[in-house]
Amino acid sequence: MAILPNLLTVTGLLFLTHAVYSAHEHSTLYATYATAPSLPLDIVFETLISVLLACAGIISASPALKPIRWARWAGAAEREEARRRLLKGKAVQGAGEVPLGNPWAWVTGERMGFWDGREKRREFADWVRGGGKI
């Protein structure tokens, strides 16, 4: 466990608590006046510095980011969808099984006029292989 990130976070939160208390005291002190003076700059700076310290501590204590693996999930979902299309007439799921595959198939599969980029890419590749004549 790293001590410096935790120390930064605690220090930032303590200073933030003090800044909030100071702002509250300032506002109650001038509550009886018709036009209250603006918040002093030392309270504003203390608030900003304390927030920056707390954010730096929280960010440095957080674990490293993991890579996004949506492409792997999407490929598996598309393979499952292709397998279902092959087994269209047969019972794919047993009783009580949770359906797998692409959860967005209802959006792209049955929608009329949906532009399929992969199919267009295949058509274009076939057109180029065929000589590319109009």
Notes on the structure:
The chain is mainly alpha-helical and 134 residues long. It has a domain of 59 residues. Helix 1 packs antiparallel against helix 2. About 6% of the residues have low confidence.
Averaged pLDDT: 80
Q: How much strand content do the residues show?
A: under 5%
What is the CA-atom radius of gyration, in angstroms? 30 Å
Structural class category: mainly alpha
Terminal-residue CA separation: 67 Å
Low-confidence stretches: 91-98
The largest sheet, given as strand count, sense and whether it forms a barrel, is:
none
- The helix/strand order is HHHHH
Signal peptide: 1-22
Protein name: Magnesium transporter
Main location: membrane
Membrane topology: Multi-pass membrane protein
What's the helix and strand layout?
Blueprint: H1 3-29, H2 41-61, H3 70-86, H4 105-108, H5 117-129
Helix pairs in contact: 1-2
What labels describe this entry?
single chain, mainly alpha
Structure summarized in a few sentences:
With 134 residues, this protein is mostly helical.
